[in-house]
Amino acid sequence: MKKLFRTLVAVVTICTTMVFSSCKEEPENQQPTPINVSVETPRSIAQVDGNLYITCYYPQSVIRFDMAQQAVTGICNLGSFHPEGIAAVGNKLYIASSNISDESFNYHYDNKLYIVDIESFKIVDSVTVGINPSKVKKLDNNHIVFNTLGDYETDFGGLWVMNTNSKEITAVSTNLYNFDVYSGDIYGYTSPYGTLGFYKINGSTLEATELGIQWNATDNPYGINVNPNNGNIIVLSDGNYTASGDCYVYSNNGDVRMNAVQLGNLPSKAVAVSGDDIIVLNEGSWGGNNAGVSRVNASTSTASANYFEDANGRGLGDVAQDIIIANGKAYITVSFSNSIEVMDVATGKSTRISTK
What we know:
Blueprint: H1 2-8, E1 40-48, E2 51-58, E3 61-66, E4 71-77, E5 81-89, E6 92-101, E7 107-117, E8 122-128, E9 133-140, E10 143-148, E11 158-163, E12 169-172, E13 178-182, E14 185-189, E15 198-201, E16 208-210, E17 221-226, E18 233-237, E19 246-250, E20 256-262, E21 267-274, E22 277-282, E23 292-297, E24 302-304, H2 307-312, E25 320-326, E26 329-334, E27 339-344, E28 350-354
Antiparallel strand pairs: 1-2, 2-3, 3-4, 5-6, 6-7, 7-8, 9-10, 10-11, 11-12, 13-14, 14-15, 15-16, 17-18, 18-19, 19-20, 21-22, 22-23, 23-24, 25-26, 26-27, 27-28
């Protein structure tokens, strides 16, 4: 999906009526003022206290979304690079720059992580990494972990850990195509289109241990997350891109906790509500307008595959990118629908907030 996105992203029309924030100092104890800003294709989310920081492709930027006000209160212009993943450590945001384009839509892969200071909301540094950095996650208070996807031809990417104080980057010998972080360790799988394996990587030593997950499905993994409530490993499958994907749950050592339950189109990320109660984001196919949200109970091996649609009488939109849960609400970026969905987790009811 990501490679296809890059091939077709040039067809997205840039909005030409934008009002940019100058990142003014706000009086003490006063909430930031909502701003009039129009952006397109919101993607990855990082949460810092009561704010969400969301990467956007057009204009290339990060917006600050105040959850209390349900409004955008700031924008950081990123120049010519297109942001992918984002993570927050301390008072800094770390943003993967996947590619760069000029005014004529000529693209080339980038190899940078850009660092944004949260208080000033401006770029303060960059670090050169591998080609086409993608996913970024906080590993601990002094480290981030990220992957690079390469150019899909001669460079097939890697997995890396960076010390956020020294900017020192260490390559991880086991390259994970997709991953999550739990209790200071990295969980993920190698390329599903080569030799598939599931691994746990010690966050301190970076030594890899193969998990006991036996993958017998006829389709491939598409997402992996660890339930912070119990350490269970949630693996989502791609349905061979032609059918609904499935959700599997394993114990932390790889034993089966829940066999496949069917979800929506291209389930990509799972977030825990409480215990074994899980919300799953279904990415949907590009241009298919069939993204959705499912709800799974791993204790009873049951699922409401169309949780969002059943509650709202409509679909989620075109290509869902990321989801987090905070204060009983799910915040979802829907890229080609140019929207942020704010969904009440208990009821599934949602409010669509347009970013354009």
